[in-house]
Amino acid sequence: MRRAVICLLIMVSILALSGPALAETLTVKMSYNGPPDEVNNAVHYYAVNFKKLVEDKLEGKIKIELYPDSQLGTEEERMELLTKSGLNQPIINVASYAGMAPLLPELYAASIPFMFDSYKAAHQFFDSGRYWSKVKEEFKKRTGAVLLEAVEEGGFLAFTNSKREIKSPDDFKGLKFRAMDEGQVILYKAFGASGIPIPWTELYMALKTGVVDGQMNPATYIIIGSLYEVQKYMTLANIQYSDQFLVVNGDLFDGLPEAEQKAIAEAAHQANVMTREMVESQDAEQIKFLEEKGMKVYAPNEDEMNAFRDKGQPAYIEWLKTTVDEEWLNMALEDAKAANEAVK
Predict the structure, then answer these.
(1) Is Ligase among this UniProt entry's keywords (predicted)?
(2) Class assignment of domain 158-240+286-342?
(3) Contacts of 6 (CB under 8 A, 6+ apart)
């Protein structure tokens, strides 16, 4: 199946690249995760607006075809399609950390827990920070592809559990949490809890049957997964900023006139601003919905957030040092601190 998809993509891509010689419109595929649902899938909302903005700005010179639900392959397969070390096909992809980090582990420095005090701080970090500029440069060097935006996906991750209210790291002791990756296992261990890797598709039943007591996700995923039915307590600890990454094949982007490159970059950022507004406007409504469903929601104060940060960050950073140079970690932390101060 994978080989058939790739072969078909190659044939269509070759035709697309020869398009300008035969017609005025260049057709480009854009792939991403999740269903074609503008209300519940922020990445699809982003893709729809990016497509419209690009096509409007370039007056029909480029047409973008949307492929939601990972139709062009898994995270790894889609990145293989567009990088110079892979098939180097002229496509656009919105990738999560699962697709990006194997190519640039330094990206994990942006996922250090409790880095950002607010959405505005996260925006500043990704829009103008020194770390993020270096990430984009290094990504182009290693893959040949162009990284344009960190697309806001679903707000900040929050802790939930079925046992007790969590106001401090000590409240985690003895609890079992679902972990999405090794970094989360490390974080839970630092708090005195255990982290157990469980796929999203099995999470609801794992919570219902007590295999684990809790998990972390943005409010939108707690609603999508109906996790409020099996979770009582929610702590809004701004654990990690939930984002994905807009990547364009390098030969495709570099082969366009400078004016068209600029238009695409502008469209990428404008669509991101629109997505941020949508996600953040829904956030308060979603939390209210969860409260109405019976969840007890707690927002830690500044001292409590500092306690989470002081206990969780060192262990997570030590884990990251096994794969990421300390220079990258320091740069990310410095940029985050500056962003938090700038938007107070």
Answers:
(1) no
(2) alpha beta
(3) 73, 77, 81, 87
How are beta strands 26-31 and 91-95 bridged, if at all? parallel
Dump pLDDT digits (tens) for 26-70.
999 999 998 899 988 999 999 999 999 999 999 989 999 999 999
- For residues 151 and 268, the answer to whether their CB atoms sit within 8 Å is no
Which residues sit opposite 128 in a β-bridge? none
pLDDT in tens, 202-227: 999 999 999 999 999 999 889 989 99
pLDDT of res. 276: 97
Tally the C-alpha atoms within 13 A of residue 285's C-alpha that lie toward its C-beta: 8
Nearest-angstrom CA–CA distance, 86 and 67: 20
Name which of 28, 150, 40, 36 is nearest 97 in CA terms.
150
**Closest listed residue to residue 229, CA positions, set 168, 180, 162, 282:** 162
Tell me, yes or no, if the two domains 2-152+243-282 and 158-240+286-342 fold the same way.
Answer: yes
- Quick one: residue 83, left, alpha or beta (phi over 0 = left, psi -120 to 50 = alpha)? beta
The third-level CATH classification (topology) of the domain covering 2-152+243-282 is D-Maltodextrin-Binding Protein; domain 2 (3.40.190)
Q: What is the pTM of this model?
A: 0.88
What is the residue extent of each domain of the chain?
A: 2-152+243-282, 158-240+286-342
Distance CA 236, CA 218 (A): 9
